[in-house]
Structures
1.
Amino acid sequence: MASSSPAPEPRPSPTYRLTEDQAALRDAVRILADERIAPRAAEIDRTAEFPWDVKELLASHDILGLPFSEAYGGLGGELLTVCLAIEQISRACATSGLILAVQELGSLPLILAGSDEQRQRWFPDLAAGKTLIAFALTEAEAGSDVAAARTRARRDGDDWVLDGAKRFISQGSVADLITVFAATNEDPETPRHDRLTCFVVEKDMAGFNVERIEHKMGIRGSPTAELSFRGVRVPDANRVGDEGEGFAIAMRTLDRSRPAIAAQAVGIAQGALEVAAAYARDRKQFGKPIAEFQMIAAMLADMDAQTEAARQLLYKACVEIDAGAPDAGRWSAMCKLVAGDTAMRVTTDAVQVLGGYGYIDEFPVERMMRDAKITQLYEGTQQIQRLVIARALTARA
Amino acid sequence: MRIVVLVKPVPDTASSGERLRPDDWRLDRAAVPAVVNANDEYALEAALKLTEAHGGEVVLLSMAPPSAPETMRKALAMGAASGMLVTDPALGGADVPTTVGVLSAALRDMEYDLLLAGADTSDGGGGVVPAGVAAQLGLPYLSYAAKIEPDEAARTVRVRRISPTGFDVLEAPMPALVVCTQALGEPRYPSLKGIMSARGKELTTKALGDVAGAEAGAPTTAVLAATAPPPRAATRVIRGPADEAAREVVAFLVERRIV
Amino acid sequence: MPGPIWVHGELTPDGSLAKISTEVATLARDVGATSKRDVVGVIVGSDPKGAATELARYVPRVLAITEPATADHAAATIVGERLAELIEREQPDYVFTGAGPEGRDVAGVVGALTGWGVLVNAIAVRWEDGPVVDMSVFGGKLTTTSRFAGERGIVTVRPNVVTAEPASATGKVEAAAVSGALKLPLVKVVDRIAADDVAAPIEEARIIVSGGRGVGGPDGFGVVQELAAALGGAVGATRAAVDAGWIPYAQQIGQTGKIVKPALYLALGISGAIQHKVGMQTADTIVAVNRDPDAPIAEFADLFVVGDLFEVAPAILAELRARAG
């Protein structure tokens, strides 16, 4: 029987500052990102190769253990801490930040609905960064409309047999494990939201294939894969949660994974802001640094204020979601909506501040602008986020 | 093996706020965030590698202001097992003899096979303290180590010392004091688990009175003034073809009588 | 009766006088003249005569102590111990030594055995009723001026802050004996390994040509070396180049390498990040070549060439050769 995550301990009182441990962790990840990941970022983007060295770096510094509880060798699984790390890494390299975000995303169905046996089987290696996990929900014809998924899982004895295809799966080609959502019920009487079931497919299972890797505008080092399942035999022991619970698991997963994307977006924005501010301070035109011209100063001010606002909303959302807030979906959608739009705006303005230099790859802002766009698209488009928020709002009204 | 590493919190060079207090020209250590002295990190890394290879634990020792525990936590996060901090208002601005005396007194109560130190400190240290401590404690002194190889069975240590012509290979009985160089290897970043466990590690604080035989002697030196060095003349920038630039450079060097 | 100023003469591995000691001796002589104190050189070594004779070109009197133990033991502790015994006997007031690895080790031992204060890394020493010592701190951001509280002390002097100048007359060398067992533990030298590519200590070089990340690889250092040779200088490097294995650590300049104060620092392909800057920014003249017009080094160099070092450095070489020829 699937067990949900244990009720979190009550927090003493609202605090708007990070704890010492959270700050220490954040600073440690920042140093690592600045010294070891930032120098690689341009090359990762140019070669569009998955940065195994960065993955090793994150693993060896326990960073990939952040989403998992200490019982499995992780660092506790607190959402805010995971997001602090993603933010710092993404400042330097959005592709690298995604490695941690996807490790969390792929594991969430198991964290939320997996059995103790499943967690015991897979979490230690995932926490140690020895294995990677991806999340396969989206299909060619089922993007925003998740329930329309057509990948099927048919019961056969103690196994399930999967047939179908998933599209746009982040890190689908480098993952050892994939949490896959397949339709197990095609009875037209069954409500749409009760038809999916979640399974863990292991990469060596026969019939599982990586069909192609997309060439993308941004986060080019992160392989986005099309996966096919042709008669993939998956033991029932790999089923996550109840039959028909898949859609609910997916939605609860997204409530916790959207903040991770918001963290990536805030990180990208912050990285771009820092480049723009440093440039504006050093670049002199008409006899003075361009930061002293009001139009530039105003842009920088807006970029900073908006990034900070997105950041604070993200941190608050993490705390609310971890506290078990009943409106977790609203928090999750809001922080992702605001952060994604902020990242796009801030990176575009960063290119603007740098002028011609912002358009060439000698400076990282053009890459950051390309990287930012995805945060408005995946884990639910901004339009989906708005639907979620509007529904929550009107339900309360 | 038990290894004690001398660490000193110093102002972060990368920040630019170091300043001296105008009333007594002492370093205003509150003005800038402190980091573990860069050279001490190499000593600490060497110690950690040795205990990983030979078993045992690494202990930190520092004589520093009361704000030091935070910086020492960073060193603990790298993997040291515990730390001892000697801190006392009377030790503010301590000169070389007092520093040597207090560290030696603290070390007399400690047990170790090796005592490691960094080559010098970035906040004005002249690299004379480790030699002084070794002399005061009667420890064999091996400096500028590029390699450290203890032989626990024989209770000796071999050190490759960087010399002007290459390396000297030194050997001495343990316990010994070894001054470490960067050649020993890059300090590790603390892992997140290291950071989280640092909080639980023991960091003992002792005042001057708690350390037998330690005292703040009358200062042997005094700072009279601190000034910013005269600003450099504005940079002359040369662009253009390489041969023209080269002509300007050489003319400049001739003008300055360098060639 | 005011005591003399002593100059500790340091020895190179082959037993000759270290260059820095000629500078320290020159400085001590100037201070001696102003203060009207005697200046005496002191050398401790297994065969000190040659070095003592050389040191006598700079100071009027040199005490040469033969100490066989330094032949195959780590010298600093032995030298320090003998110096401390001699200090007890001869009663000098001040001891000047170099601030390099050898000198500072000796200063530390002597300081601990005598209880004297130590003023380190002097970039200037004058006399005002006692030595007044300038020291450059925080990577050159500040210069502090200090003195001893009492009437005795040890000063360590940075390389290259004084130009060595022999005295007008050669001094006398006196053999001095210090007997008695050494009390501090001896460290045996079991082997000496000569490295193929060892250069003279870089802190002593008058001209340094340095390469950084822009050099791109060990082959790139060829042009750095050629230019250094043409200028009669030493080759330096940033940490990036050393970490990448292009050049030995002994030539690294910066926060965790050497601090240098040459007459000319020529930086090729070096951005000038703070960790490197603190190692070289007090050089008299700084010339930098970098493709990046916004490299931090442009802010504190005297002359900044925007260009490709692989074009500019050979051009400088050609220009130097044209002038020489």
2.
Amino acid sequence: MEYFTQQLINGVTLGSIYGLIAIGYTMVYGIIGMINFAHGDIFMIGAFIALISFLVLGLAGITFVPLALLIVLVVAMMFTSIYGWAVERLAYRPLRGSFRLAPLISAIGMSIFLQNYVQLLQGARVKPLPPVVQGGFTVMERGDFTVIVSYLQIVIVVVTVVLMGAFSMLIARTSLGRAQRACEQDRVMAGLLGINVDRTISLTFVTGAALAAVAGLMFVIYYGVIDFYIGFVAGIKAFTAAVLGGIGSLPGAMLGGILIGLIETFWSAYFTIEYKDVAAFSILVLVLIFRPNGLLGSPEIEKV
Amino acid sequence: MAVVPDAPARSIAPGERRLDLAAVLKEAAIAGLIALALGFFIIGLKTDTVPGGLALKGRWDWVAIAVAVVVAGRLAIALRRQMRPQAASARREEIANRIADGVKTFARYAGPALVVMAVAFPLTPFANRYYVDIATLVLTYIMLGWGLNVVVGLAGLLDLGYVAFYAIGAYSFALLAIHLDWGFWVALPFAGCCAALLGVLLGFPVLRLRGDYLAIVTLAFGEMIRIILLNWYHVTRGPDGLSDIPRPSFFGLEFARSPEEGVETFHTFFGLDYQSLHRIVFLYYVILALALVTNFFTLRIRKLPIGRAWEALREDEIACRSLGINPTNTKLTAFAIGAMFGGFAGAFFATRQGFISPESFTFIESAVILAIVVLGGMGSQIGVVIAAVLLIGGTEVLRELEEFRMLAFGAAMVAIMVWRPRGLLAHRDPTVRLHQAGAGGGSPP
């Protein structure tokens, strides 16, 4: 029971990270119907920017942890979102209205490019970061096994929940959110009604990248090591999460992220750690076969 | 507000040839600022591993260079656009189309000519070990491209996990050859069958999915196969890989300098001096033959009902279903046949290398093969050849640039897509579209 609770806590933490990345996939898919294959690498770049800004802050002598976290969060979100914008502008916008596979291929090319770009400029070795937030609560204790919720896990889950709330408000209440939902339904009509479609799509990429940057920051402080390759696997899993929750649905992306995090953690805890990715992918296949629209997605009617 | 997304807003009307220097400079300055922001952390601050953590090293000169390049490039593009407002892109498109048409017209004659050239190539004096090796590699990718072309180009199924079949072919061949002592030619069909069987097994549950989902599921399958190969240690020997895979023999004649007792070798049988080039040239011919078989098969099956059904299915699945074509079975055959050719290529890869490990079957391989098919122009056989020569041969020639190779590869993929979204030699003209420049996602695949 204690072991189970501990794994549950770990799983939810990991799931929060996946969920934040998954939102980027789900929004982009919702609005332009393409898999933004480079999104995982945007997450990786966010992690690198967070790591480097931690080091810069360390040199600058800012050691008050909450302040440092806040600064890094803002910096990483800002700079990563510029990457999101640039990727869309360079690799996807010229292909808008082109045939279906073109943006996907372009995205794969972009993903390869970004990975090698970071590898070349920052080196291929793993980058360690000393623990930023330490300590935690003891929730349960029996015999020699204690269930611990670390402060870090609390930070991760709280930040995720706050961002999710803010983001849902953004989509539901602001004019940008309205424009986004309108473009999702019918881009031509939205354009005719005076919505700047290009700008809306750009902003979708920017917000997606900002959330991926948050995920990157959390990844770097949670695991303490990153390399240029983390974006690939995390990207596929986050996409799996988006599909699992129902692509196009924001709560679905978060739910899917948490589920994938839990599945992965429990699989590693109770079965074999080597096959945890296989478990996550098998879930993807099963969901697609039995519930192609995901858990919270609305069915899509094919019109002739 | 104009909604035509792929016609960027221009500051001057067409025909008006006035240079708006202020606008150009502003555009370049903005581009420079963005480049500065992009490069600030990743280029400007290098993390170095030192004892006890990481150290930062400033590289502001690199950032300055990057920004300067971006500003100059943006300036050039903006100036060019102002000088010749609309014509440039349209004319470029037209020229490229004409070249593509020309190539297609000549493909009828060029095809056989290319085959003759390929056959004659090892006999020419400049065929040294290095060039024959590169040519073999390019041919392997051409074969893989042709195999995947059946799935992607003809049937319109986006497969991002093609490397799984390549891997299955390689591993099943290696295991048969090592444990059962089967020769290359006997094991080859089995390797192909294993891959095709796997294709059917994988394809059966997932082929009902729509295009993008299928892509991601095949990608997941590719990764799953790799993870299994990596962890199933007592069969695949995991990350250590399988070594000592037997080399193919020439009708029972081995290529070896000093054979075992009683084994006749190629050079003694033909009374030649031993040369290691013999085996390399032989391998070259093997893959050439395999690739040509793939090509011939594809060209013929296109004209059969099943091939027609694939292409019809690519164009409109609902119409096909109404006309009594079983979409699942039709897709499954395409998937299985594509997988079979992947398996053949894998078996060849295993026998050529003599050593295989899961390292060789990563997602990047799938991406490269898919890139060859799509960049060449989906469904175009000659396009695959051109794309394979450009991508594989090109990056192979650039090997001195080692680290920049994949960077250039990724950038080239994006650039070619932006320049010609339908590939260098698009096989068919775009079908009639309802909305010009299709702002919606409604254009057919």
3.
Amino acid sequence: MAAREKIKSVGPVALSGPALFSALRSTWNENFACSGKQACASRVSHGPDFRDQKWPRGLHTLIDPLAAVRRRILTNAFLGGWTKLWTWILAGLIAAAVFSPKLAWAVISAGALATVGAIAAAVLTWRSRPSAYEAACRFDSAAGLHDRVSTAIHLGVIENPDGMILRQRQDAVLRAGRVNPETLFPIRMPAAGRRAIVLGVAAAGLFVYRIHYKPPIVALLQTTARSQLVQSILSPIVHAMEKDLQRTMALVNSKPDSPDDKVRPGKSATAPDDLWKANDDQGNKTEGGQQDSQEANAGDQMQEQPPSSMQGGQGEAKPADSEQQQGGDRQSQQSNNGSDRMGGDTQQQPESQDSENSHQSLSQSLMQALKNILSNSQSQQANNQANQKQPNSPGMPQSGNSRQPGSGEADKKGESRGMSDAQQKATQNSSSGAGSQQGSKELKKDQAALPVNAVPDRVALESNGFKEQTRVRMDGGTGTARLPVRDVSPQAVAVTNGAEQENIPARYRLYVQHYFEHPDSGQK
Amino acid sequence: MTGSVRMEGQKGDNPLGQQAESLAEKMQEVRSEISKAIVGQGEVVDGVLIALLAGGHVLLEGAPGLGKTMLVRTLAQAVALKYSRIQFTPDLMPADVIGTAVVQENGDGRKSLGFQPGPIFTNLLLADEINRATPKTQSALLEAMQEKQVTVAHTSHQLEEPFFVMATQNPLEMEGTYPLPEAQLDRFLFKLRVPFPGREDLHDILDRTTQGAAKVVISVVDGPQIMEMRQVVRTVPVAPHVQEYVVKLVLATHPEGKENLLANKYIRYGSSPRGAQTLILGGKVRALLNGRFNVSMEDIRALLLPALRHRIILNFEAQADGRTTDDLLDEIAGKISQI
């Protein structure tokens, strides 16, 4: 109402923006800003801009030290806020130096952020600057003045005091003059200062490092990607995805002119399972031998590149190993011949089993990868324990993963490698290519226990360090992977199940799986 | 109290400032005179002087033989005030305290009822063992302590200023006593606990009381001077943040506040507004006695216990936990920030 009256009093001619604003401001000041004269007078002394106020003559000597106190308080507050900001900026710079390949933008943005932050910190500090009264309270507290200065500042609005107020003011001025505010309020290092220094040193070191090298996290990821563990984790997934993609592509390619869709009675032409199966059957027919040969070549390549750790202390075991490798190559070649026959036999398998074999899902691959991780750690522990048990083995200078358990045990028993190879050859001739480099006695027991169609086969695995567990049990009833066998009856479709795969060391399991499942192995 | 009452700065033509300075000097002399008879008990003496200048009354609590009565008597001598003592007993009646109307015969032989003032008509009243009187008799002091007057037979009689009541009570013998009601307690400015003297003080007491003659206490100030000092005390300024601190302290003793967890748990009734008045007024006197012209936080903190310990009523849980008002007040003051 008062504002309306004021606006009316101004008149319609002068009703402009500034006039309206001034009327509103005056109304606000009258009604809300100050409740009374005393309150207004008191508020003047408590305002932040006490430099601009008209202080009584006796208080000027009190205002100067208070201004110094306030400067110190503002400086410390600004430094504290800015240092906190710098801490975050430095943390961001460190992150950029670790992750980002380009540092220019990071540095530019950090500089801009620091500048903006400094301005913001200055503004915020200035907005929250202490009033003369607050500065006086802090000054009293720090100097032990028993609230003399704050009381004098509070009563400073009285122009010509008398009596006790004047006496109190004189006392405050006298006591405050004896105290040096700059010693009471030194410019201190902020609480986050040390943290900022450490981060700054770290950031500088990282930037110096980045001048010559890649981002550390990139190098770490590359190193990790090359490691066997990650490959064992990722390759089943990638392989399954590739397989699905290839099948999808093959399905797309074969769908328009597939004669089987019309020929086969009782089967839906659009059923994806059938199409997959048909494609698999064709692939088995045409690519069976090529796949196996490709697998064997891959196995040869892997065998030709033994781990570097194994090359150091081969010693006496090396010739025998080379013979074993050659034996393994021969076995894989022989198994190729056998798989050619088997490729034709696979059509005689039940369709349900065939579809199961051909539809390994991605989730199964993931589960298999997890199993690989677990079994890898278990096998490493077992290898470490075995290494601890055989530190003085004469024929085993290797240690760690390059250990060859089979050869070590053979050395203990006094058996030669030639004997082992001879037994392998005998076992191959007698039992269709399956063999164990550790010895044939156990294998014969296994063969006796197996059913008729479960023919053990020698798997062409990486020869180094795989002598102990080269036997793959085959069961025609369960499993998912078809195992090409040599010199077996046409029904012998060797498969491996998950439980048997757990007996295979994890580092070779990928190869075994790759060997069994790779569809393009026969093309090469 | 530091004892340093020499005020510095420009004196100039400032009568009130000079009065303040002379007040501090006079009180220092009173202290010196009291110390002739009372050994030690510095805080008690300071509290008594502060209460005297603030216009309040003091309740002294202590074991027998600690010099409570001696302190009051010595103070009366040092300040040249009329002094009377009432020994409170269970059969003491209010008329025995405030006086009564008696039949008087004038010169013409006519008889009329006239007021016979009781021992309360004095400047400095020692109510010894006040908790042994019945509540009826205790309440006879209420009007005198607050209004500085007594009413007998529908006639009010003003008491002479300064009127200063110093009551004592024994905390040990509670049998046959009547604890003071809250209304009565609230009228005492301070409740001072008289501690047992230390080793050195005890040696000094023995030397003074068993050898030679007792020292004579000289009157330093009189009643009118004390009344002037009371006026000077009220002119001492208080900064807003000090007053805010007092308000916070008093409010923190009330269990009604949601933030006062301690008071919620242990306190049944908090301090009355008289507690805040006591803190401010006592702080002013203390500031002047310490050579300052403003009330500080330290003054408030120093007077917190004597000013509020008898204004807080603890609940059963506090008694069960063995908590005292002094403990709780210290804890409350520690939780309230001073700035």
